[in-house]
Each structure stands twice: as C-alpha cells, then as structure tokens.
Amino acid sequence: MKSLPLVFALTAFCAVFVVAQKAEPNQAEPKKEAVPVSPAAPTGEKVKNVTPDEVEKLLGANKEIVVLDVRTPEEFELGHIAGAKNIDFHQPDFKQKVGALDKSKTYLLHCQAGVRSAKAEAVMKELQFKSILHLKEGFGKWESSGKPVEK
Q1: How far apart are CA 118 and CA 143, in angstroms?
Q2: Measured between alpha carbons, how far is 112 from 116 in angstroms, rounded to an integer?
Q3: In whole angstroms, what is the distance from residue 149 CA to residue 110 CA?
Q4: Residue 126 to residues 6, 25, 119: CA-CA distances in angstroms?
Q5: Residue 109's domain spans which residues?
Q6: Is 38 a domain residue?
Q7: DSSP 3-state helix, strand, coil percentages of the chain (rounded to 5)?
Q8: Does the residue 119 lie in any domain?
Q9: CATH, residue 76
Q10: pTM beyond cutoff 0.90
Q11: How many domains does the chain have?
Q12: In a 3-state reduction of DSSP, which class is residue 62?
C-alpha cells in the first residue's frame, strides 16, 4: 500500500506532461507563411487567400481570372466587382451551376464576409477546380478598402 501514493503521483505527472505537450505547438513544423501569387499563373496550390490590394493587381494583370460572387442576387445588385459572375451559394442548384464552369480557369471567389465563399471553396475543391483565389474578408473588405464597385 505504500507504493499506491507513488503510483498515483507518477500517473498524475504523466497526465500533466501529456497535456502540456499537446498544448504546445510542435516546434518541428515550420510556420506556414503566405506565398505571393503570380498574376500570370496560380501557385499550384488549389486555394490562395488574397487581399483586396492583391486582387486589384491580379485582375489588372490577368483578364482571364473569373470573379465568382456567391452572394444573393439582391446583394449582387447593390454592388459587385466589375465583370463578376453571380451564383448564389444558398440556391439548391449551386453545385450543379458551379460544376458547369470551366475547371481549368482561375476563379476569384468571394461572398460578403468569407463564410459562404469558404463553403463554396470546399465545393469547388471537391469538383476538382484547378485554381481558386479567395478574397479574404469578402466583398465587405473590398468596399471598405475603397476598391471600385460596379452597380
């Protein structure tokens, strides 16, 4: 019975050690940093998060990028990025409509704040789209950054 407190203490120590190891980030893995996106070609990654400033430069340099706005038609009518194609994420035929698009093109995907477009991004990855640019913080950030809006 004298060994019972010792076993208990060792068990508690091991449990604390395991929890502490899981709480600390693995220092062997390098921190992933953003890689600049070439305006002429995607980086080879399926999805690249981009800022409004990066989007403006990319769209100016590459007219082949398709802007895909997944907000509602009502939101789209209030203002959108020039030349954008609108496919409402909440419509039941969203996956079918997106699936009909040319998967070899580069798409700039956005919604208002990033939630719907993140879900749309998952659908597009599932459908094997080759290159997706995702506008961080969505159209709201585009507008608040003073970027041009078409109505």
Answers
A1: 19
A2: 8
A3: 14
A4: 53, 30, 11
A5: 47-144
A6: no
A7: 40, 15, 45
A8: yes
A9: 3.40.250.10
A10: no
A11: 1
A12: coil
